[in-house]
Amino acid sequence: MTDYGHDLLFGSFITPAAARPDEVLALARLSEAAGLDLVTFQDHPYQPAFLDAWTLMSFVAAQTSTIRLSGNVLNLPLRQPVVLARAAASLDLLSGGRLELGLGAGGFWDAIEASGGRRLAPGQAVDALDEAIRIIREIWDAERRGGVRVDGRYHRAVGAKRGPAPAHDIGIWIGAYKPRMLRLVGRLADGWLPSLPYLEGGPAALAGLNAQIDEAATAAGREPRAVRRLLNITGRFAASGSGGLLDGPPRRWAEDLARLALEHGVSGFIMMGDDTDAVQRFGHEVAPAVRELVAAARSGSYGKDASAVSTVDRPAVAGLWDESTRPVAPPAPEGHVETARGRAVGQHLVDVHDHLRRELTEVRDLLEQVKAGAVPAGRARAVLGEMTVRQHNWTLGAYCATYCSLVTQHHGLEDSAVFPHLRRADPPLVPVIDRLEQEHVIIHEVVEGVDRALVNLVREPGDYTELQQAVDLLTGALLSHLSYEEREITGPLSRYGFYPGQI
Description:
Blueprint: E1 9-14, H1 21-33, E2 38-41, H2 53-63, E3 68-71, E4 74-75, H3 81-94, E5 99-104, H4 109-114, H5 122-140, E6 148-151, E7 156-160, E8 172-174, H6 179-188, E9 191-192, H7 206-219, E10 228-233, E11 236-237, E12 247-248, H8 250-264, E13 266-272, H9 276-299, H10 340-372, H11 377-386, H12 388-391, H13 396-407, H14 418-425, H15 430-459, H16 465-496
Parallel strand pairs: 1-2, 1-13, 2-3, 3-5, 4-5, 5-8, 8-9, 9-10, 10-13, 11-12
Antiparallel strand pairs: 6-7
């Protein structure tokens, strides 16, 4: 078990689709709004279906304020090291120190050669990357006197002027899998950035690969912890998963990622995919839980048992409620076997929640349109009023009855049938239902607060502070509440159904 003790990073890995530039930019902004630390883009300069990575990162940096950026990973064979170093330093300066440099040695050599790059054998590509890293770091060392001189076989600098220096110490993160590349990571890199789907042997392979990096770092006189371990990941959010890695609700993701951090030293998790709901859940629900689990394990509060995720106290959500005081649903009765029909009933709730999460994304996008002047505040009020999230009165009976009517209209469910049915079917669940009812009332007020902020914006145009705060409050409250409800209610629904006799 290896924990290198780094602070945790969470990021997104967005496809730079040239056919959908607005969606790419929206996902990047959403990554920042969701609280992620990093937004990354693959770099294939020979691929006309993709936006150019440097142009895209520059544009995203101008449209965001806190999130860090990186190529994942940049195609070195088509990017000359001196120019790359200056481009990286320039973007780091312009963005206020928000750039990291993910680098790859190259792989698609037919396309690289067709685009004017030099075809290299695998060993040659490793040597070329070694030379490039030396040149890049020399260019950044602006205070050193004299020009940069690296007489490499594949990359040369014969007196290139130094500078500019970046705004912060840019990390050089290397995508690597094979022994020679892993040794280079240990000798020279600041980080290792593989992709989980490409690891032969899956997560179990991390121990052996880490050992190769550690051995090379030690041989080079470096501490192994000088190399941050990052990982591109992919998975599926679901009410009840298959039991596989990163397949299930956010709490399952948190447990899995905490184990990867504590057992394999992974401190950067970058989620692959372009799903807006997944980005929000990853940022708002998974990342905080992983941080709490890892912090608790490091402090000795829970040893290294990642299963403690559901018991870790969490702070109040924007002053609305304290998540640590939430009651927990009772376990399933001994001997209970969940049926396929029961799982489908529980999944209905998640499906409707996902609809609300999509609407939340629309609300945040609406805010950006209002700020950009594309949508008047009055029209935004009308759009908000048409959304399901606004039409709910968020009282207990109507809230859940509306959920159920969206997915089981043929059952003719009465407005107040669902939770009273669960109260009768499972009395120990009553504290959870009471808590949900309290949160429904609070969320109703939070939604009304967004509407009031829009009204005030109509009266006093130009100041978006109140509206931004109201939408941020809604984001935190709604995502927190939906996650709690899924965690505690999905199981009882799968056992007892929405109404008597359904299961």
